[in-house]
Design a protein that fits this description.
Keywords: Membrane, Transmembrane, Transmembrane helix. Helix content is about 90%, strand content about 0%. The chain has about 55 residues and is mostly helical. Helix 1 (about 1-20) packs antiparallel against helix 2.
Length: about 55
């Protein structure tokens, strides 16, 4: 669940960053995808860490 939330948050932050920089639709999609991947990986590590600490 953390991974999905992080992925969505990353995509939103990426699109927002591209909008602030005055990017085109392609820029917004690229930033959204890149941020989503990074945040999903961080969410995966957070999920693994939380699972290990609870067991």
């Amino acid at each position: 669940m953390i991974v999905i939330g992080a992925l969505l948050l990353g995509a939103l932050l990426g699109v927002r960053t591209a909008q602030k920089r005055g990017g085109s639709l392609a820029d917004k999609l690229q930033y959204g995808a890149a941020y989503a991947m990074v945040f999903a990986i961080l969410g995966l590590f957070a999920t693994i860490l939380a699972d290990r600490m609870l067991l």
